[in-house]
Amino acid sequence: MRERQRLRLGILALVSVVLLGALPLYFGLRTLSHDPVFDTLDALSVPSWAATKTVDNVSGSRWCLQDCRLRERTVESQKAWKETAQAYEAALSRDGWQRWKVSRCPEQKVKGTYTCWRRDELTLDLWVREPTCVPPPVEGEPAPSPPPAPAAGECTGSLVSVKVRNAIDDERTGPQPTTDPSLTGEDPYPTLTDDPLGESAPSPS
Fold this sequence. Notes:
By secondary structure, the protein is an alpha+beta fold. The protein is built from 4 helices and 6 strands; from the N terminus they run ααββαββββα. A hairpin with a 2-residue loop joins β4 (113-119) and β5 (122-129).
C-alpha cells in the first residue's frame, strides 16, 4: 500500500512539475511569436467597412539580429480608395502618428495615394489604391494567377497596404543624398543652351 501511495505521489508530483513548466513556456513562446505592432494596427479606429479582410506578413528579427523586423498588412476595404485613405489617415493621426514628409515616399510613382508616418521608434508606409482584379481567362490561354494580396469582390472597393519598420532600419531616417556638384561630380541642373543636340559651343581660339 505504501509503495502504491508513493508511486501515486510521485506521478502527481511529476505531472505538477510538467504543467508548471509547460504553461510558462507556452505563454513565453506565444509572447515572443506575437508582434505587438499588429495590436497597434488592430487598435486603429477605422470604420468596419475599411477593414473587411486582413492579411499579415512578418519578416526579419524583432531584435535586428540580421535583418530588422518588417511588418506588412494588406487590408480590403468596401469603399473607394479616396474615402478609405481619409479614414486611415485620420485614424493614424488620432493614434499619435505624425505625417512624415520625406524623399523616397514612395520609391517610385504609384497609383492611388501613398503617405509616410512616424511614431516613436517606428516608421509606417500607407498605400491605398484601387483593388487588383484578376481578368477573366481567355479561351485557349492559361488562366491568370491570382494576386498575392486579397482582391475586393467584383473589382469594387479598395486595397490598403501598410508597412511598419524600425526607424533605425529605415534608410530614409538617415542622411539623404545631396545633389551638390562638388560632391557628386555632376551638375544636376546643367545650363540649358539653344543647341537642340546639347553640344557645347567651341571655345574661341
